[in-house]
Fold:
Amino acid sequence: MLEERRLLSTAAGASPSEAFQRTPLTFERNVGQADSKYGFVAHGNGYSLLLSPSQALLAFQTPGSSTASQNAAPTMSLVSATVVGADTSTQGIGLDPSQSVSNYLGGPKGAADLTGIANYERVEYGNILPGVDLVYYGNQRQLEYDFDVAPGTSVWTISLHFSGVEGMSLDPSGNLLEFKHYGDPRMMY
Structure:
C-alpha cells in the first residue's frame, strides 16, 4: 500500500490528499439519500450540500463547542441561501455527466443499498423566476452558481436570503471571501 501511495504521488505530482482537493465538485441526483425536497446532493470533507429550485443548503460539521473537554462531539451547522419567490416546482437537470457514480451501502434501519447514482458537473434549475435560470457548478472543490437572465428581464427580480450566517467578508469585486456562521468556533457571541 505504501508503494502504491508513493507511485500515485510521484505519477500525479501530488499526494493523494492533494489530488483529492483538486477533484471537481460533482452533484448526484437525490434518489432517497436525502430529504425529498432537495433534487441534488454534493458531498465534501465534513459537509453536504443539498440543492432545490429555491435553496442551496450547506450542512457541515463544526468542532464541539464544549470548553470542558477537548474531545467534545462535533455539531452540525446549517447555512442556506434561498432565492426569494422562486418557483419550487421547477425540476433540476443534471448537466455534463461525470465518469463517477455514488454508492450508499448499508443504509439506516435496513434501508436498501443505493448504487450507481450518476454524478454531474453542473445542475440547472430553469425558470425559477420569470426569465431567470439558476446553474450550480463546482470550481475545484468550491461551489459556484450563475443566474442566467433572459434578454429584457431585470436582474433586480433576483433576491437572495441567507440564514445561519452571522457575518461575511467580500473582496472589492463583491466575491465572498469568508463567512461566519452560527456554531462557528471563531464567533464571539
Notes: DSSP finds two helices and twelve strands in the chain. Residues 165 and 181 are 4 Å apart (CA to CA). Helices lie at 2-12, 16-21. Residues 2-181 form one domain.
